[in-house]
Amino acid sequence: MVITGKYMHQTSKKEQKPPFLPLQHAPITLTGGNLYAVSSVPDCQTDRPITYLHTHDSAEFGICLEGNGVFMIGGRIFPFRGGDCTFIPAWLPHLAQSAAHTVSRWYWLSLDTARLLVWAPELVDLDCFHGEGTPSLFPAETHPEENRLIAELFDIVRSPDRAYVARRLSAVLALFSSGLHRRFRPAGDGNGPCIERVRKALDLLFRNSSKPLAVKKLAEACSLSENQFRRVFSRATGRTPQEYLNELRIAMAVSLLRGGTLTLSEVAAECGYPTLSSFNRQFRRQRGSSPGRFRRSLAGETP
């Protein structure tokens, strides 16, 4: 089984992957003085099982055109749906998976932020916005300003006027960076090394989120004692392993509820909750409403 239960893909013995997701670098080379690279056609993200994390050497912006699923960015879990936007700093490991039996479509834009913001050194360090203090995914309903600016970046690069593109990209990127500096908290210097020390545990949690938590197994994967693992994990994620697992499960549940094809009991079982009452309790604790109320709100019904 990969990631969750019976509604996700099965893998045969021949297809079974190593126990940990490898980290791969996918370079995006901005050559010939180019300040950006943009996808010419929508990228289709399937529900194919996750087999690796990847990084880029440039900051990457994304717009989800349609679909829903889950995005893992820098060790944190974000449910996404059509209309949401992402900002992923350079070198930050990430991956996405669409909900079971669906495909989501995305546009991607990579920018040379250092050259575009060379005139504003106080705004140039966008790579520091990757920790607990900054959402890497911006839901349309809760972050309209970030979504508007990211959408404007994509609109700008459609112009054939290179001078206009460079000038407007620089201005809009400065507004986006200024907003991040004003509204969010940059990551501390020590977060990166901690994340790397527990990356194998995050991989295991993500791929086995419907199974019971086994802290001993997570600690062994990271070559740490249980006490050491708990301390390092807390510094890296700001959560205990159980809190992180609950957050991951509810993120998965949000994605499945947005898909609208499963009953509440099926969503609960898929996400690792043995009873509907335990699922309701945890969902309400994290989202402030019951799963049923949340689903009705998506349909525009009166809760």
Automatic annotation (TrEMBL):
Question: Which InterPro entries does this chain map to?
Answer: AraC-bd, AraC_XylS_family_regulators, Homeodomain-like_sf, HTH-like, HTH_AraC, HTH_AraC-typ_CS, RmlC-like_jellyroll, Tscrpt_reg_AraC-type_HTH
Disordered as annotated region, ranges: 284-303
Top-rank taxon, per record: Bacteria
- GO MF terms on file? DNA-binding transcription factor activity; sequence-specific DNA binding
Q: What residue stretch is flagged as signal peptide?
A: none
Q: Enumerate the CDD domains for this protein.
A: cupin_RmlC-like (cd02208)
Q: Which UniProt keywords apply?
A: Activator, Cytoplasm, DNA-binding, Transcription, Transcription regulation
Keyword field contains DNA-binding? yes
Ranges for domain HTH araC/xylS-type: 199-297
- The protein in question is named AraC family transcriptional regulator
